[in-house]
Design goal:
single chain; 514 residues; alpha+beta; FAD/NAD(P)-binding domain; 3 domains; globular
């Protein structure tokens, strides 16, 4: 099928970012393509995510947008890691930083940390794994930031993502599209008209109707086209990912220089976890939770108490908003002549910022399939696309499940349930199965320790693929002693180096917010 016209239903981050991708592709390919976006200012957008992973850089690079072009407009800050507080046990925390290891030739480095944590538990505590692999983890621990290349393995331009106000970023994308002649219509969707093959020939809205060859569903959880019109089945993940609700607010800084971190902080509470996202103008906080073991009133009380104790801010009810969401995905993201991008296709939960990640995966994969043969596609393109995006989100599902399944918390009904009662998928190919296989058969979480998240989560949750009993009965080798001494020297060396760097706030002031 040849695509001459694409209509996107829905605005926000999903709709406007994909429109930007199409507009940029049209610009560089010189192809004749009509692009229009039908959205409603009245309905607005959910804007669940304000925290991103490194994949967001692919979008800005493709669009040709530099930090100074958009960050100041969106109250954006830099993100170089994710911190998990109270996930292992109350009173603990660990980092999951972005980057490549500075110790690439040492293929056994990751393995040796798991041995040393048993021999030297007072030194190699769960929070040291990231520091042991990535020296620049100390930037996160001390809330410093730099774009110098003095720290081995750390390239600021390559290993930094962002926090931002999603509503403001959507406006940046919209302006980008308007400058490239994308047509926008503020209208409210009512129904679709199908042709004799079950494809959508046009969508009907309150003010007008819109025809196209291909429709992009960015209508959020309502999935107005992919599910409600095309009839794609929704596969529910709620059996293992039980959180389905967020209570959120934006609160002022009380100590900006210390509170404006270079990472997203995730704090486990009694019925889920709370995000702490440092924007330039305020802190975004949101309690991601389940009502399975608690009432709405109890959740609200817990959320307010956390913000008061942690940040010294008393939140007014009028400043709080609530989002209900569902975890899962549709069987296909591209069905007939409809592609679901963003929440209309699927969603896991805010942990690990996978919402914007899956949005970008679907967007770039769709662009890849459409651009292969200059806006001509067949069934094989749809099949490759669906296989790709389904595999990605299913793999991410398993990664998110690790954060709960391997926790040692048993101090609430919620944590007892996720650690003791949930049956996590054990079929061949599932993440849970992979961890079991590596822990039993090859005694490792990975073949190489770089660019794989599982070891950071497992180490931070103090779960090893080795037998502690076996490790302790082995003699302390000279190699382990030397590695321990090297690590202690590295600690002093890098902490001394980092002490001269500016705080994250000062770095942002100089680089972006002059």
């Amino acid at each position: 099928m040849k695509v001459n016209k694409i209509c996107i239903l829905g605005g926000g981050t999903a709709g406007f970012s994909f429109a930007s991708l199409l507009a940029r592709y049209r610009e560089i390919s010189k192809l004749d393509l009509d692009i229009e976006v039908v959205y409603s200012e009245k309905i607005g957008n959910i804007g669940v995510g304000e925290s991103t992973l490194l994949s967001i850089n692919d979008l800005f690079r493709f669009l040709g947008l530099k930090d100074e072009d958009w960050m100041k407009q969106c109250n954006a800050t830099y993100k170089t890691s994710i911190s998990f507080e109270n996930f292992y046990k109350k009173g603990t925390s660990f980092q999951y930083p972005f980057g490549d290891s500075a110790f690439m030739p040492d293929q056994f480095r990751s393995q040796k940390w798991f041995e040393m944590k048993d021999h030297y538990p007072e030194i190699f505590t769960p929070d040291t794994y990231a520091r042991y692999i990535f020296p620049h983890t100390r930037l996160n621990e001390t809330n410093k930031l730099t774009d110098s290349e003095d720290i081995p393995g750390f390239n600021f331009n390559q290993w930094s993502a962002y926090h931002f106000d999603t509503n403001l970023l959507a406006k940046v994308f919209k302006k980008y599209c308007e400058d490239r002649d994308v047509k926008f219509y503020d209208d409210v969707y009512t129904e679709s008209v199908l042709d004799d093959k079950g494809n959508i020939s046009k969508i009907v809205c309150e003010n007008n109707s819109y025809e196209a060859d291909l429709f992009i569903d960015c209508s959020g959880f309502k999935s107005l086209l992919l599910e409600n019109v095309i009839g794609e089945k929704f596969i529910d993940f709620n059996e293992t990912l039980i959180n389905n609700r967020v209570v959120r607010a934006k609160i002022p800084y009380t100590d900006k220089e210390n509170q404006l971190k270079n990472y997203t902080n995730c704090v486990a509470l009694d019925n889920g976890w709370c995000w702490e996202i440092p924007l330039w103008d305020c802190l975004s906080v949101g309690y991601v939770h389940s009502l399975k073991f608690s009432s709405e009133e109890e959740i609200l009380k817990e959320f307010k108490s956390h913000c008061l104790l942690k940040h010294g801010v008393e939140i007014d009810d009028n400043d709080i908003s609530i989002i209900n969401y569902k975890t899962g995905r549709h069987e296909k993201s591209w069905s007939k002549n409809v592609i679901g991008i963003g929440l209309s296709y699927g969603f896991l939960e805010p942990l690990e910022s996978t919402g914007i990640l899956t949005l970008l995966i679907n967007g770039f994969r769709a662009l890849e399939m459409l651009s292969k043969r200059d806006l001509f596609y067949t069934k094989v393109d749809q099949d490759i696309f669906n296989f790709s995006v389904n595999t990605e989100i299913d793999t991410l599902r398993g990664f998110i499940e690790l954060h709960y399944a391997f926790s040692s918390r048993d101090d609430s009904d919620y944590w007892k349930y996720v650690t003791e009662e949930i049956e996590y998928p054990k079929h061949n190919g599932s993440t849970y199965h992979d961890i079991m296989f590596r822990s039993v058969t090859i005694r490792n979480y990975m073949d190489t320790f770089t660019n794989n998240g599982a070891p950071y989560i497992m180490a931070g949750l103090n779960y090893s693929h080795y037998s502690k009993a076996y490790n302790l009965i082995q003699p302390e080798t000279e190699e382990l002693k030397q590695r321990k001494e090297d690590f202690l020297k590295e600690d002093k060396y890098f902490y001394d180096m980092i002490s001269a760097y500016p705080s994250t706030m000062k770095f942002l002031e100089e680089k972006i917010y002059k």
